[in-house]
C-alpha cells in the first residue's frame, strides 16, 4: 500500500512539475529548459540596423528570443522612403543552427494576399481594371454558376462566392504552371457558393487563383501575378518576392519550425474547445474551433487541391506552385516592407520608382469598406476596397497577415510599412504575439 502511495505521489509530482513547465515557459522552450535551464536552444542574437530613434526595438526583440517566444525571424520597417528598422535573429538551419536566418526566403502564406492586392491596384491605376466592374467583363466564362455580378472588389473583399470549390483542383493541373487556360476553365465552372447572394466568407486559398487569372486576362502582356511582380515590382525595387520558390533559390528555404504540440494541447486546445470563464477569450476562437468541424466553411476553404499531404507547407510540391497568389508567396521581411511601402506612400514614388499615375486607385484600394460579418472567420472583419484588412489590435493599420505569424501591413497616415517573417509557426490569425509586441514597441517610439 505505502509503495503504491509513494509511486503515485512521485508520478503526480512529475506530471505537475512538467505541466507547470509547459504552461509557464516560453512557447518554444521545452519544460526542461524552463524549469532546470537544461536543453535550452543556442542563444539567437538579434542583429541588423535601426535608426537611432528606434534602437530600443532591438532589446524588445531580443527579449522575445531570450524568453523562448521566437526562434528565427526578421522584422523590417520603412518610414517615409527610408528603411528605419531591419532586424533579424536566429538560424535558418534549425534551432541550434549556424546559418543566419537573414538570408532565408520564407513562405508568408496569406500575407501574400496584400501583394496580390497591390498588383490589382496598379492595374486599376492603368485603366485595365475597375474595382466595381463584374469580373465577367474581363473573363466572360467566369459568369457561369450565378457569378455574373461578382465584382473585382467583391473577390478582393472575400465576397466572390468561391470560398470553397465543389470539385478539388487536380494537383497536376496546377503543379507545372503550364496549364493556365485549362485551370481557368476549371475555376470558371464553379457555381456561386451562396446562390448568387453576396456573402462575405474569407477565401482562404481559392481567391488568389481567381485573381491570378484575372491579372493574366487584363495585363497587356498577359503576365500572371508572379511574372508581373518580378518585372514591375520586385525588379525595380530590388527586392525578392515570388509565388512559389524557384529551384535556383531552393537552398534559401528555411523549413518551418512547428508550434510545439505539447504546448498546443495543454495551453490552447482547452481554450479553443471550451469557454473557460477565468481566462481571457482567445482571439479568433470561433474559427479555430470550426477547423475541427469537417463540414465547416473554414475547413472547406482550406482544402481546394487534391493530393496535398497533411503538412504540405514544408514540401517542394507546394513550393512549385506559382499560381496560388493567396498563400504561395516566398520573401523576407525587408522585401515585403518595401513592397508595402507602395501603398503606405499612396502614389508617391518608392525609392525613386513610380507605380501610380495618380493617387486615385491606391486611395480607393486603401479605403475601408463596410464592416461585415465573415462566415469563414466567424466574426466581423474590417476590410478595404482593394482587399486589405485591419490586422493589428487597436489600430487602423491595414494589409494582411499569414498562417504561422507573418505580417505585411502599412499605415498611409504615417507613411509607414511594417513586415515580420518568422520561421517558427505561431498561433493566431494576424494577432501573433511576436509581431504585436514588435509593433507596439515601434508605436511607442514613433
Ligand atoms: C447579384 O444579383 C442578385 C440578384 O439581383 C443579388 O441577390 C446578389 O446579391 C448579387 N450578387 C452580388 C455578388 O452582387
Ligand atoms: C459544423 O459546421 C456546419 C456547417 O457550418 C454547421 O452546420 C454545424 O452546426 C457545425 N457543427 C458543430 C458541431 O459545430
Ligand atoms: C457586423 O457586420 C454586420 C453585417 O454583416 C453589420 O450589420 C454589423 O453592424 C457589424 N457589426 C459591427 C460591430 O461592426
UniProtKB/TrEMBL annotation:
Sections of the chain in a coiled coil: none
Pfam family, one: Beta-lactamase
Kinase keyword on record: no
Keywords per UniProt: Membrane, Transmembrane, Transmembrane helix
Residue ranges occupied by any Beta-lactamase-related domain in the UniProt entry: 75-426
Signal peptide, first to last residue: none
Gene3D superfamilies named among the record's database cross-references: DD-peptidase/beta-lactamase superfamily
Keyword Transmembrane helix: yes
Parts of the chain that traverse the membrane: 7-23
Protein name: Beta-lactamase domain-containing protein
Organism name: Acrasis kona
Amino acid at each position: 500500500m505505502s509503495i503504491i502511495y509513494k509511486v503515485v505521489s512521485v508520478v503526480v509530482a512529475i506530471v505537475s512539475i512538467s505541466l507547470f513547465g509547459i504552461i509557464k515557459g516560453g512557447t518554444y522552450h521545452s519544460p526542461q529548459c524552463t524549469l532546470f535551464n537544461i536543453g535550452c536552444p543556442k542563444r539567437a542574437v538579434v542583429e541588423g540596423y535601426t535608426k537611432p530613434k528606434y534602437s530600443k526595438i532591438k532589446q524588445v526583440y531580443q527579449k522575445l528570443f531570450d524568453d523562448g517566444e521566437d526562434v528565427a525571424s526578421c522584422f523590417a520597417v520603412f518610414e517615409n522612403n527610408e528603411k528605419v528598422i531591419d532586424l533579424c535573429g536566429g538560424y535558418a538551419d534549425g534551432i541550434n543552427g549556424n546559418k543566419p536566418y537573414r538570408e532565408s526566403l520564407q513562405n508568408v502564406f496569406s500575407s501574400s494576399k496584400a501583394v496580390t492586392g497591390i498588383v490589382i491596384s496598379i492595374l486599376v491605376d492603368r485603366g485595365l481594371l475597375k474595382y466595381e466592374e463584374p469580373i465577367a467583363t474581363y473573363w466572360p466564362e467566369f459568369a457561369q454558376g450565378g457569378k455574373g455580378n461578382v465584382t473585382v472588389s467583391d473577390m478582393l473583399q472575400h465576397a466572390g462566392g468561391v470560398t470553397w470549390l465543389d470539385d478539388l483542383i487536380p494537383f497536376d493541373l496546377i503543379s507545372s504552371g503550364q496549364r493556365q487556360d485549362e485551370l481557368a476553365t476549371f475555376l470558371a465552372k464553379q457555381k456561386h457558393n451562396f446562390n448568387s447572394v453576396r456573402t462575405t466568407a474569407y477565401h482562404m486559398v481559392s481567391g488568389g487563383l481567381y485573381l491570378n487569372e484575372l491579372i493574366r486576362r487584363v495585363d497587356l502582356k498577359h503576365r500572371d501575378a508572379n511574372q508581373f511582380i518580378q518585372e514591375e515590382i520586385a525588379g525595380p525595387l530590388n527586392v525578392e518576392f515570388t509565388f512559389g520558390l524557384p529551384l535556383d533559390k531552393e537552398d534559401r528555404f528555411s523549413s518551418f519550425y512547428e508550434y510545439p504540440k505539447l504546448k498546443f494541447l495543454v495551453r490552447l486546445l482547452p481554450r479553443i474547445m471550451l469557454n473557460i470563464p477565468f481566462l481571457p477569450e482567445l482571439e479568433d476562437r470561433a474559427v479555430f474551433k470550426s477547423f475541427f468541424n469537417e463540414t465547416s466553411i473554414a475547413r472547406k476553404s482550406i482544402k481546394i487541391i487534391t493530393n496535398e499531404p497533411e503538412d504540405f507547407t514544408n514540401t517542394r510540391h507546394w513550393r512549385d506552385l506559382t499560381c496560388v497568389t493567396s498563400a504561395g508567396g516566398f520573401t523576407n521581411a525587408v522585401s515585403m516592407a518595401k513592397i508595402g511601402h507602395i501603398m503606405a506612400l499612396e502614389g508617391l514614388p518608392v525609392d525613386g520608382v513610380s507605380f501610380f499615375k495618380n493617387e486615385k486607385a491606391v486611395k480607393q484600394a486603401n479605403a475601408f469598406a463596410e464592416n461585415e460579418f465573415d462566415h469563414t472567420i466567424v466574426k466581423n472583419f474590417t476590410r478595404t476596397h482593394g482587399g486589405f484588412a485591419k490586422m493589428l489590435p487597436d489600430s487602423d493599420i491595414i494589409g494582411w497577415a499569414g498562417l504561422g505569424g507573418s505580417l505585411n501591413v502599412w499605415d498611409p497616415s504615417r507613411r509607414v510599412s511594417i513586415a515580420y517573417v518568422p520561421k517558427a509557426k505561431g498561433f493566431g490569425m494576424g494577432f501573433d504575439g511576436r509581431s504585436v509586441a514588435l509593433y507596439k514597441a515601434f508605436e511607442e517610439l514613433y
